[in-house]
Design brief:
Helix content: 25-40%
Largest sheet: 8 strands, mixed
Shape: globular
Mean pLDDT: 95
Order of helices and strands: EEHHEHEEEEEEHHEHHEEEEHEHEEEE
Low-confidence stretches: none
Number of helices: 9
């Protein structure tokens, strides 16, 4: 095996490739990764992203095996707001948002009751036009935010609000979001994670206070870690692609967010967050069989629009 970086992308991601055809099988990669665990962890903590390129992955089960070996026990996408198709146990399509929509940088599930420490992407079908998964350093994003804006998010955090329908409406239903038809299971999740909830004629109304920034548990580095610009109703991002944005009823509005003290986030702050995040993007073209591992706190990710076929799987640990 040998490591390198991609031209023009600085040190993110670190690239690991087989040194010979004998090293291409997934078994060889995982055996090597097991013997080089300390080195890989060091690369990930420094760069935030590792791209395994040129190895043989034949099925979703191979991807699940590799992700679990590299990151630990895989977790279901419970509580997530992105539309996703489950391909295998704890393996999903990266997103089912329409291909023409851009998705800005974000850290997976930073708004939810839990978030993965590592997230994995595997390219089954490489897009011919567009479709990159840009990545960005959340530490650098934090540092690049204006001091006042950074302080507001660090002090107050972000409160995320949503209305999940019961089977008819925009976005995901509460059944899809929590991967259950049992209201008792949903209520147990909400109570466990400090999420306020209220059943309505429309479905389920939730409110949860989460951090605006986070400190990495290993390195102590401060990372920008929220999805305010994705959830705020004023920006009408991909999150609202099928919602009627003329509908402002608090009982049916798909999503919104405020600062943790309940005050509205100013539009100029949201626009600044978008600008800083966009400037931090680093992107490469997918190749079939690529496996990308991200430290979910250090490295944010997104999706660029594409044309034609594209299949990227995701797993979280």
């Amino acid at each position: 095996m040998w490591t390198s970086t991609l031209s023009g992308l600085d040190a993110m991601p670190v690239v690991v490739e087989p040194g010979s055809s004998a090293e291409r099988p997934i078994q060889s990669l995982l055996a090597w990764a097991g013997s080089q665990r300390e080195q890989l962890d060091s690369h990930l903590l420094r760069a935030g992203a590792i791209l395994f390129r040129g190895f043989d992955f034949e099925a979703p089960e191979d991807f699940a095996w590799a992700s679990a070996e590299l990151g630990g026990e895989l977790q279901p996408y419970v509580g997530g707001d992105s539309p996703r198709t489950r391909i295998a146990d704890k393996i999903y399509n990266s997103t089912d948002f329409p291909p023409h929509l851009p998705i800005g940088l974000h850290n997976e599930l930073s708004y939810a009751g839990w978030w993965p420490s590592r997230i994995f992407f595997h390219c089954r079908i490489e897009p011919k036009v567009g479709g990159q998964t840009p990545i960005g350093d959340s530490r650098a994003i934090y540092q690049a935010m204006p001091a006042g804006l950074r302080e507001r998010f660090e002090t107050h955090g972000v409160r995320y609000l949503q209305n999940l329908h019961s089977g008819k409406g925009p976005g995901k239903s509460w059944q899809q979001t929590f991967e259950t038809d049992d209201p008792m299971v949903v209520e147990a999740y909400c109570k466990k994670h400090g999420m306020d909830y209220r059943w309505t004629d429309y479905g389920l109304n939730t409110s949860i206070l989460r951090q605006g920034v986070i400190r990495h548990p290993v390195t102590g580095a401060t990372c920008w870690f929220n999805q305010a610009e994705h959830w705020h109703a004023a920006l009408q991002t991909a999150r609202f692609w099928d919602a009627d944005m003329s509908q402002t009823d608090s009982e049916t509005l798909a999503a919104h967010c405020t600062l943790g003290d309940g005050s509205e986030i100013e539009r100029r702050d949201l626009e600044t967050i978008c600008e800083v995040s966009k400037a931090a993007e680093r992107a490469f073209d997918w190749r079939a069989r690529d496996l990308l591992m991200l430290d979910n706190l250090i490295c944010a990710h997104g999706r660029r629009p594409y044309e034609g076929a594209r299949s990227i799987m995701v797993a979280m640990s």
